[in-house]
Amino acid sequence: MSVLITGSLAFDTITNFPGRFAQQILPEQVHILNVSFLVPTLRREFGGCAGNIAYTLYKLGGTPLVMAALGSSDAADYLQRFESWGLDTSLVLRAQDAYTAQAIIITDLDNNQITAFHPGAMQQAHEMVLPAGRRDIELAIIAPDGRDAMLSHAEQFADAGIPFIFDPGQQLPMFDGAELGRFVDRARWIAVNDYEGRMLCERMGTTLEALSRRPGIDGVVVTLGAEGCDLWQRGERLHVPGVPAGEIVDPTGCGDAFRGALLYGLAKGWTLERCARLGNRVGALKISHRGGQNHPVPSPLADEA
Ligand SMILES: Nc1ncnc2c1ncn2[C@@H]1O[C@H](COP(=O)(O)OP(=O)(O)OP(=O)(O)O)[C@@H](O)[C@H]1O
Ligand SMILES: [Mg+2]
After folding, report:
1. Nearest ligand to the CA atom of 256
2. Nearest protein CA to atom 15 of ligand 1, as residue
């Protein structure tokens, strides 16, 4: 059985400028800004929420089925990666005349960052429609993606009776309270970080406690960085403490790694608490590695949780 993962697929190009932006950008000259930064180091990482979640799920021994968009111009590397994991790539859209979503980041010596984000193929992700009659999907996640894709995939999964996690992430501000309510009505679980949890409640005019009491909701998971997470189920809060991390190298993608573990456990029929314990362990491993898809996930981890 497969776990359907929708969300972004992206490339992250990360460069370092061994100087200080402030020394090159002169405040009195910003109206004619024309700067160039020499960046001797460059890394290109596979990223995007769907890709990151699929990575952790695959490493744990699960079967991700990615439904997301790549650009036809540069899809090859990502497709090859998925194929090397033995994944079914038939639900990966190759968007015509588009590049895959990508972020180009320059970091200076003070950790200031300048980022260009090109959404590219992600804006066409709604064109990938769940094929009728796929009986191999047991659950799904709707991770941050193009707006239309998120709305339409939620409808499709609900119609097909596929239970899913609603994971609005950084796309949450795109939706108003009524739209968020429709996602929540269709979802089985909600996964947010602390900040997103507050925004979700504010926009919907509700509380985490009340959300978790809604019929059809089995759990609301609120991740809390190093502190681990809170689980809300039927109005009760349970705190699951974080796992001490080794070296703190790069926090980006911890949320995605956590969700990969959550899906692994849910697919096995584990309690939410056991899923969250595994999520915290995997999240703590992730933070010691750069990028969203480079952390090792020892397979015994899945059994020990
Ligand atoms: N410093 C840390 N030490 C140990 N575990 C961590 C740390 N930061 C994050 N984690 C783990 O990763 C999970 C997700 O982290 P967090 O709550 O920061 O998500 P997030 O804000 O959505 O992150 P992002 O969107 O950048 O991936 C946490 O619940 C925890 O299990
Ligand atoms: Mg997040």
Report:
1. 1
2. 225
